[in-house]
Amino acid sequence: MLQKTISHTARVAGKIRTLRRNREYSQEYMALLLNISQNAYSRLENGKTPITIDRLYQISSILQTSPALLLEHEEPAAQAEWQRSRY
Fold first, then answer.
1. What is the pLDDT of residues 16-30, one digit of tens each?
2. Is residue 2 part of a domain?
3. Which residues span the domain enclosing 53?
4. CATH number, position 47
5. Tens of pLDDT, residues 32-59
6. With contact defined as beta carbons under 8 Å apart, do 17 and 48 qualify?
7. Which of 16, 31, 84, 87 could be 38's S-S partner, Cβ–Cβ 3.0 to 4.6 Å?
């Protein structure tokens, strides 16, 4: 069975979207604080535009989290179990 892979950009963008929604911030609010258009912010959050390191730090500051948390990759449980069992 082939698994669909998600790019790093899409994974980080998804975390940003989740945190933004949890804080009940609108895309317009985020765009205003980042000094970009809502359209540009939407492209960042949808993984269509790569997120620069500087932008990642700005977003993490607004969302009151660490850049490391946004970059963190959780391994799917099935894959982690497979890796443990092969040793």
1. 999 999 999 999 999
2. no
3. 8-85
4. 1.10.260.40
5. 999 999 999 999 999 899 999 999 999 9
6. no
7. 31
